[in-house]
Design a protein that fits this description.
CATH architecture: 3-Layer(aba) Sandwich
Radius of gyration: 19 Å
Shape: globular
Number of strands: 4
Distance between the termini: 31 Å
Largest sheet: 4 strands, antiparallel
CATH topology: NADH Oxidase
Strand order of the largest sheet: 1-2-4-3
Structural class: alpha+beta
Bound molecules: flavin mononucleotide
Number of helices: 8
CATH superfamily: NADH Oxidase
Length: 250
């Protein structure tokens, strides 16, 4: 399938423009638009085309009831121990996580020792940060890492298809420890497992929570390669570093 000549630039722009948005305008989102986004994202590749993604869409009164129930469970400590990171986190990633916390709570004016304010912010996850649409992504619990990878590719497609339509998102693993309660709410099948949530709507550009641009490391920090001419490689690395700096500045 042929693409317009500026397609690469457009895709790059959308990839760089996507951010995790944690405050939304009180503006509804059409069901058809949501379904269109979920449909186009399904062009994601998957191992042997197994397409292991499942999505539950919430809006209106059901979203409100769902959010209130999970917030109450959060306050009561009625959830499983979070398992999305190992303890301890590999050393190389600790600095990134610490930097995230400084930027995130700093943007919100929350002191790192203010556990009540931090918990209140975490609780906002469960109302999907006020977004008009909440998505819960699930998978058959019998599947392994590579099928979870397929689901992650699908989720990125959802976020990019949304952003290309001017719609913001925030992926939310915070839902995972609430699987038992979520499964009851959404009448999940017995083998279904909650992997992640996602807020979707129109971000509030004036909200402090949306004022952050999380930095990325340049490719030289995470790419090993072989077979290129060494001088080409040096030039490429310089160009890639410049791109990373430019992306952070945007
Ligand atoms: C799988 C996954 C789970 C995430 N879970 C949460 C979450 O529960 N709550 C939240 O506020 N942000 C969550 N995030 C957003 C990350 O904090 C964010 O992607 C990261 O800091 C980079 O910022 P950016 O998305 O704005 O570029 C999650 C992101 C991913 C990919």
């Amino acid at each position: 399938m042929s693409l317009p000549p500026d397609a690469g630039r457009c895709v790059d722009d959308v990839l760089r423009a996507r951010r995790s948005v944690r405050a939304y305008l009180p503006r509804t989102l059409e069901r058809n638009t949501v379904l269109e986004i979920l449909a186009v994202a399904a062009s994601a590749p998957s191992n042997s085309n197994t397409q292991p993604w499942r999505v539950h869409v919430l809006a209106g009164a059901p979203l409100k009831a769902f959010g209130e129930d999970l917030a109450m469970a959060f306050r009561c400590g009625d959830f499983a121990a979070p398992s999305h990171f190992p303890d301890p986190l590999p050393q190389a990633l600790c600095a990134h996580r610490a930097d995230f916390a400084v930027r995130y709570y700093g943007a919100l004016g929350i002191d790192r020792d203010d556990t009540a304010a931090r918990a209140a912010q975490t609780e906002r996850n469960f109302s999907f940060f006020g977004a008009p649409v909440g998505l819960i992504f699930s998978i058959d619990a019998r599947l392994g890492h590579h099928s979870w990878l397929d689901l992650g590719l699908y989720m990125q497609g959802v976020m990019i298809a949304a952003k290309s339509r001017g719609i913001d998102t925030c992926p939310q693993v915070s839902f995972a420890p609430f699987h038992a309660r979520i499964a009851r709410h959404l009448r999940m099948e017995s083998n279904e497992l909650t992997v992640c949530g996602m807020a979707m709507g129109f971000g509030d550009p004036a909200a402090p929570a949306n004022g952050m641009a999380m930095p990325r490391q340049g490719v030289e920090a995470f790419v090993s390669d072989a077979g290129f001419d060494v001088s080409d490689l040096q030039a490429d690395k310089t160009a890639a570093s410049q791109l990373a700096v430019q992306a952070q500045a945007e």
